Amino acid sequence: MDASPSASSAARVQIALGERSYPIVIGAGLFDAPDSYAGLPRAASALIVTNTTLAPLYAGRLQQALAGRYGAVHTVVLPDGEAYKTWETLNLVFDALLSHGCDRKTVLFALGGGVVGDITGFAAASYMRGVPFVQVPTTLLAQVDSSVGGKTGINHPLGKNMVGAFYQPQLVVCDLGVLKTLPPRELGAGLAEVIKYGPIADAAFLDWIEAHLDALRAGDPAALAHAVRRSCEIKAEVVGQDEREGGLRAILNFGHTFGHAIEAGLGYGAWLHGEGVGCGMVMAARLSARLGLLDEPAVARIARLVERAGLPTVAPVLDAADNAGRYLALMRLDKKAEAGEIKFVLIDGIGKAVVRGAPDALVREVIDASCA
Amino acid sequence: MDASPSASSAARVQIALGERSYPIVIGAGLFDAPDSYAGLPRAASALIVTNTTLAPLYAGRLQQALAGRYGAVHTVVLPDGEAYKTWETLNLVFDALLSHGCDRKTVLFALGGGVVGDITGFAAASYMRGVPFVQVPTTLLAQVDSSVGGKTGINHPLGKNMVGAFYQPQLVVCDLGVLKTLPPRELGAGLAEVIKYGPIADAAFLDWIEAHLDALRAGDPAALAHAVRRSCEIKAEVVGQDEREGGLRAILNFGHTFGHAIEAGLGYGAWLHGEGVGCGMVMAARLSARLGLLDEPAVARIARLVERAGLPTVAPVLDAADNAGRYLALMRLDKKAEAGEIKFVLIDGIGKAVVRGAPDALVREVIDASCA
């Protein structure tokens, strides 16, 4: 057993949900250190779920780290990308579990970004009506957002994440070392979810992000460590108060109502999720301003930061004939919508979010002003 | 509003699960009486999920009963039969929900037998990560077993109910009137799950079933009312103690380990689920006897009752070359199995069940002695 010094210096954020509580550990060199998994119950088998891009880089190292805890450690390799966040891909996980004779004690390990994490989590929620799972997020986006909080699921052609479960992992291992190999476009997409936490919850964190954005884009380890930790702390605070999104938790969806419409409207995978969220935050900030909640300098501040992160701030045209109508139709399928009324996460002064409806005419103006 | 007299005389069994508690109401003339649904929250829309056999009989009447509570009541009609308890059929429900713009408040109504109930429950668990649903079971099997307790799911080619969720309904409406049109084969299949409750939990109920089996097969309303009520009471007691099958709840699977192997081995739908369970109970009783838990007269008593219910007591050959091996392989995929050891629900004297493993050699003897 390798008692890695980085493991012992890891930061720890606790998600407090009673009997479903679990830790997020954050540090370099964690994912392939057997000690990182010391708190998990032993079992006859484990299944690593990863994708074609990550398998050659990391699957063998994780398998080795887990070999001492499980009688057999199997691996299933999924196709890479949001376009594959489908039932067909999910079913590959069930096929692997059943063909290896995995039982109710089998532990699933999600080794990958948001797509792998969401699919693995939903597979764990559903296989034999629930088996334990662990998140090992390999992208910044997954480390600061999607691996934490128990939202799992797959896409439907008509809407993103429409089929899924609230299902918490046993543990989240955020290894900052793996971010070194992350392509710049993926790093930028992750920064969208980091930036998000400022406007919705923490004005001081927004100041910090502005001061450290260049360091973050350059992959500076200390800056990334702080960004991941503070993001997880804010998310833990919100999820601990509202696990199943009865209310407060919806604020974490800032930028996502517009963003999901872009993703679904262009076809999953054309824009990265974080790119949709980045552009969506600018649109939601503009809508906040039109409703008198936010002043124009604050809108410009958010737009500038999104741009500095390398993310798009001009929204795509989804329908040449009736672009705003197409956006509205897609957003009416948003999970926050109720009786056909779209609910937007809006910024009521930097550091505070509100969730509310808005007149279609105002939303159309924002779409028209935001599209290329 | 039709304040049906039968609704007011309905029996009521409560499933006590804290904030997930709900009532089962049992009586004649309930399913199309608006009052039966009076306790449910109002919403903009509802979706009735039913099948091709039941839609012409009952869907319109349920729709009318719900019209006053929901702005729109939609219906989706699934193909009928265990062979369709698949992802493809489940997806028809998601397609309907999304094409009608259903939101997180939309209520699903499962109008049908076990297949419709299991699919609808899993759809409700997964659509937007969870919407409310109501069970309106139309078969005896669904009324006494599958609609109660929150086990939902679909089959995988390699095993029954391998993908699903524990997800409780808001309400179960058992209308004894609809059992009048149930084909005799379906009624017999339901009796398997009624008989089950005697050996595992209630010797006096087994005596009662023996005395009233002819009345039950003839569709006698008073006999059916008692059978449904007592079955639901026993199930409520067990589920209230162990919602997620950490231990005790597994006793409800008496006959199901062998039965599921028969169902999967023959191809879903060849035997009805209740037929597999009936034959499986005889096999499990024989295994109990070989392990010294049950005496031969008690085994004969269970076999005789299964036979009187019109259910098979001779098991099918699943593989001419290695029949017992095929049964064992299928049973090793059972959800109760752990590290490759099959766990059987065995009878330790009438009225008491135990869950434990058994030597392969003994299991093989039972299979050999039970197959045609």
Sequence-ordered SSE layout with sheet pairings:
The structure is a homodimer of 372-residue chains.
Chain A: H1 5-8, E1 11-15, E2 22-27, E3 43-51, H2 55-66, E4 70-78, H3 87-99, E5 107-112, H4 114-126, E6 133-137, H5 140-146, E7 151-156, E8 159-166, E9 171-175, H6 184-201, H7 203-217, H8 221-241, H9 256-266, H10 273-290, H11 296-308, H12 323-331, E10 344-347, E11 353-356, H13 360-370
Parallel strand pairs in A: 2-9, 3-4, 3-5, 5-6, 6-9
Antiparallel strand pairs in A: 1-2, 7-8, 10-11
Helix pairs in contact in A: 3-4, 5-6, 5-8, 6-7, 6-8, 6-10, 7-8, 9-10, 9-12, 10-11, 10-13, 12-13
Helix content of chain A: 40-55%
Q: What best-fitting shape of chain A do the alpha-carbon axes yield?
A: globular
Low-pLDDT runs of chain A: 1-7
CATH architecture name of the largest domain in chain A:
Up-down Bundle
The count of β-strands of chain A is 11
Q: At the third CATH level, what is the topology name of the largest domain in chain A?
A: Dehydroquinate synthase-like, alpha domain
Percentage of residues in strands of chain A:
15-25%
Largest sheet of chain A: 7 strands, mixed
Q: Helical stretch count of chain A?
A: 13
**Structural class by secondary-structure content of chain A:** alpha/beta
Order of helices and strands of chain A: HEEEHEHEHEHEEEHHHHHHHEEH
Strand neighbour order, sheet with most strands of chain A: 1-2-9-6-5-3-4
Oligomer: homodimer
N-to-C terminal Cα separation of chain A, in Å?
A: 55 Å
Q: Mean pLDDT score of chain A, rounded? A: 95
Largest interface: A-B, 40 and 40 residues
What's the CATH superfamily of the largest domain in chain A, by name? Dehydroquinate synthase-like - alpha domain
Please, how many domains of chain A? 2
Task: Supply Rg of chain A.
Answer: 20 Å
